[in-house]
Specification:
The chain is an alpha+beta fold and 270 residues long. It has four helices and eleven strands; from the N terminus they run βαββββββαββββαα. The chain folds into two domains: 13-123, TATA-Binding Protein (2-Layer Sandwich), CATH 3.30.310; 131-265, no CATH class. A nine-stranded antiparallel beta sheet has the order 2-5-6-7-1-8-11-10-9, covered by helices on one side. Strands 3-4 form a two-stranded antiparallel sheet. The radius of gyration is 19 Å and the shape is globular.
């Protein structure tokens, strides 16, 4: 992850995505939406994938934006399969598996938002979310207790609960109230396999990697106030994107130790 301080040459970041959920205008047409948005984002997302049939929404997750079988929308990716965009009648998402810096991601988000704005498709904003998923893998580290030198102690759970047994996996979840209807959900744990499905629509950096890893999943999101229907504005949504991004770096830095920085993050990638 990048930030205002140090930029690490090596990163365990596997997946980053933004999602906007909204209420469409009464005159919204799915076919027009698909064609209109694609023409305005095709320079960054030139490959248009087959759209499912009418009526579904984006299913947002670490596998990337997916559409249910009832959807009539657009899904497009770049030629390298490292970034994607999806939009349906009630949701819009941008994802990448080759995150470079926040300004680049923000630019792709703005492209899609401008297309929605020009079509006058969005009546009200429901939810906005920004998600970062790290899979920390360290050579020779195979069990939860072996991650202890690399990750903040608060992320490990009761590893020594039983004197004659060893923990094989750990999982934890904590939600933080950030004010202004914003929250940060932190999911973490020592696991095996992967959190981001390598069989998803995007090509993951380093390819398909399995085995022991430590998950840091940061989901920063905003929801509309009860009984209110905020008007859609590209500027307002981008302000939300900036606000949602703000706590992500601090949370990640608080989660890791200098041992991880020195042994993994500061090493040049080959």
């Amino acid at each position: 992850m990048e930030g205002t301080t140090e930029v690490y040459p090596s990163t365990p970041l596997r997946f980053v995505a933004f999602e906007l959920k909204f209420r469409p205008t009464a005159t919204a047409q799915s076919a027009a939406l698909r064609e209109w948005v694609y023409e305005r984002v095709r320079e960054s997302f030139p490959i248009s994938e087959p759209a499912p049939t009418a009526g579904a929404e984006v299913v947002f997750g670490p596998q990337g934006p997916e559409m249910t079988q009832h959807s009539m929308g657009l899904r497009a990716i770049d030629r390298a399969r490292t970034r994607g965009l999806a939009v349906t009648s009630q949701a819009f998402a941008v994802e990448t598996s080759a995150y470079s810096h926040f300004a680049e991601l923000r630019g792709w988000i703005e492209q899609g938002l401008r297309a929605l704005e020009s079509l006058d498709h969005v009546a009200a904003v429901e939810r906005a979310g920004l998600r970062y998923i790290d899979e920390i893998r360290i050579e020779g580290v195979e069990t939860p207790d072996q991650f202890a030198p690399y990750v903040n102690p608060g992320f490990h759970g009761p590893l020594d609960l039983l004197s004659d047994a060893r923990a094989t996996t750990t999982q934890g979840q904590t939600e933080f109230e950030l004010g202004d209807r914003r929250r940060l959900m932190v999911r973490c744990g020592a696991m095996s396999g992967w959190a981001v499905d390598p069989r998803g629509p995007l090509q993951l950096r380093g390819g398909a990697i399995e085995g022991p890893f430590f998950l840091i999943d940061l989901d920063s999101y905003w929801t509309r106030p009860e009984g209110e229907y905020p008007e859609f504005s590209v500027g307002r949504v981008l302000e939300l994107v900036d606000a949602l991004h703000q706590p992500v770096r601090e949370a990640f830095e608080s989660a890791i130790t200098d041992r991880l920085r020195d042994d993994l993050l500061r090493k040049e990638t080959v």
